[in-house]
Amino acid sequence: QVQLVESGGGLVQAGGSLRLSCAASRNIFSINPMGWYRQAPGKQRELVASITAGGSTTYTDSVKGRFTISRDGAVNTVYLQMNNLKPEDTAVYYCKARYGPNDYWGQGTQVTVSS
Question: What percentage of the chain reaches a pLDDT higher than 90?
Answer without folding.
Answer: 100
